[in-house]
Structure formats: C-alpha cells, structure tokens
Task: structure prediction
Amino acid sequence: MSVRTHTTTLVFRRPFSMKSIGGPHPAGTYTVETEEELVEGLSFPAYRRISTTITRQANSAGTLIQVLAVDPRELDEAQAADRL
Result:
C-alpha cells in the first residue's frame, strides 16, 4: 500500500477552536499534515485521505506544543472564520 503525505503551513491571526480538538487554541503558525493512501485496483491513480493532523510550531525555546488529529472540514471552517 502506497501512502503519501502533504504538508502545509497555516497561520491563524486570532485564537480559534474546533470541536475535534477542543479549544481554544492560540493564534500562530501551524503545520498541517494530510496522509493519503493509494486506492488499489483502479486503472488510474486515486488517493483516499486517511488522516489530517495539525501541529503548533515550536516556540522560542524550541519546544513542540502538540500534534492533534483534526476534521479537515472543521479546519477549513476555522480558516474561513479567521479571514473575516
């Protein structure tokens, strides 16, 4: 089984919360990782999402805060709310 990972950086300008990770979480820079697995048996490559996590960037002391599994739809909604 083939798995691929997409990594992006996301900046929240204001504190935010999501049901899937509790809240509130502070404004700041977060890393979002999405893992997808190859769907076998098709005549073309297709991938299915198997997990999405969000990680707060290390603080000035170099300490990693948390890695949390998130619902991608809630993450999209939190991003949209932050842009308003």
Notes: Residues 72-83 form the longest helix (12 residues). The longest strand covers residues 28-38. Strands lie at 3-12, 16-18, 22-25, 28-38, 47-56, 67-69. The mean pLDDT is 89.
